[in-house]
Amino acid sequence: MSQVNSAQPPAWPAITTEPHPWARDPTVVTSRRQSLRARGDYQAAVLPLIADLDVHLDAETLAAADDASAELARFDSEVGSITAPFASVLLRTESASSSEVEKLTSSAKQVALAELDAAKSGNARLVVGNVRAMQAALELSESINEDAIIAMQRALLYESAPEYTGKFREEPVWIGGGSISPHAASFVPPHNDRVPSLMADLVQFCARTDLPVLAHAALAHAQFETIHPFSDGNGRTGRALLHSMLRHGRLTRNVTVPVSAGLLSDTDGYFRALTSYRNGDPSPIILAFADAVFAGINNGRTLVEELQAIAAGWANTAPARRGSAGVAIRELLLRQPVITAQIVADELGVSFVSATATIERLVAAGALVQTNDYKRNRIWHTPEVLAALDRFGARARRQRP
């Protein structure tokens, strides 16, 4: 049951720890100092079950979540009513921002090239994996269960690290403290034997209907990150789960609101909020997401306005008849700023020759530039859209005052 209490609310149950024996891998070469530090038991977290937990939130936290929820729904409605393909644009930018929280950075151009399997950047390919995870999270939002969460993580990593996909982890993981052992880690998630029951409990918590949607999603995200159920990809999968819950709760219906872009401006605060959650205070993680909603929406509105201005400029410099390929390609370029003639032909339903002629008119108008110097298999990009996407990323990284 959710309750508002203007007095000091009952504490959220903090994690405890339990000892586990550690067997050092004899094939790993370490210094004597490292070997001594890695001896004996290590302490792994023991998490409370939250499926049926009474949730007590103070009035200030609930008010902040309500304000952010109202703005989130408003942004989702206003952008969803625009005919331009901003749902695709915002999904990609949110995926890039979520990846950047994990220090996986890439330019908008490299990400777009990675979608064509033409990028030089390994990080760009990882961002494209995160786009797939976000798409899976939205598609699976009607039924959030263990299989759905595993599917989100599989979509994220099936190309870059398939060995970590398809199941919850079966080995210990830890955060910080080096790769030799968990003894010096800043946080050691629960032992892998506890993961299945904790994830079943989390899925039951996600199914509750007695909590405000944004607060509910933030708490589920924090519990997921504390369980750390996978060997890799937990942060990005956890933020995809947040969007799945926002869609499941009907707080968003049309677009992927750039919440991770809002987190980027204060990642230290975000990680401190997760630590507070583990120590028994759920309010900071809810407040962190409420603040992130406002920061991300402000940034998203600026991006939408810039892209609308770019499209209007193309209409002036490269006019075309209503319903023609020349009009349709403008919308395509907003969601796919790096193209080939075959992509244009397939997306617009025109011949390869017609697609090439349409591209060449935009090249002549300065809207498109050839990316490579091939005579065959040519690739073009729109510098204006890519610059707007990179400015979005730069704004997201600015620290809040």
Automatic annotation (TrEMBL):
Annotated active site residues, numbered on this chain, are H228
MF (Gene Ontology): ATP binding
Protein's UniProt keywords contain Nucleotide-binding: yes
Q: Which UniProt keywords apply?
A: ATP-binding, Nucleotide-binding
**Database matches in Pfam families:** Fic (PF02661), Fic_N (PF13784)
Spell out the InterPro entries in the cross-references. Answer: Fic/DOC_N, Fido, Fido-like_dom_sf, Fido_containing
List positions binding ATP: D232, G233, N234, G235, R236, T237, G238, R239
Q: Which residues form the Fido domain?
A: 144-292
For the region Disordered, give the residue spans.
Answer: 1-27
**Transmembrane intervals:** none
Does the keyword field hold ATP-binding? yes
Q: What is this protein called?
A: Fic family protein
Species of provenance = Leucobacter exalbidus
Species lineage: Bacteria, Bacillati, Actinomycetota, Actinomycetes, Micrococcales
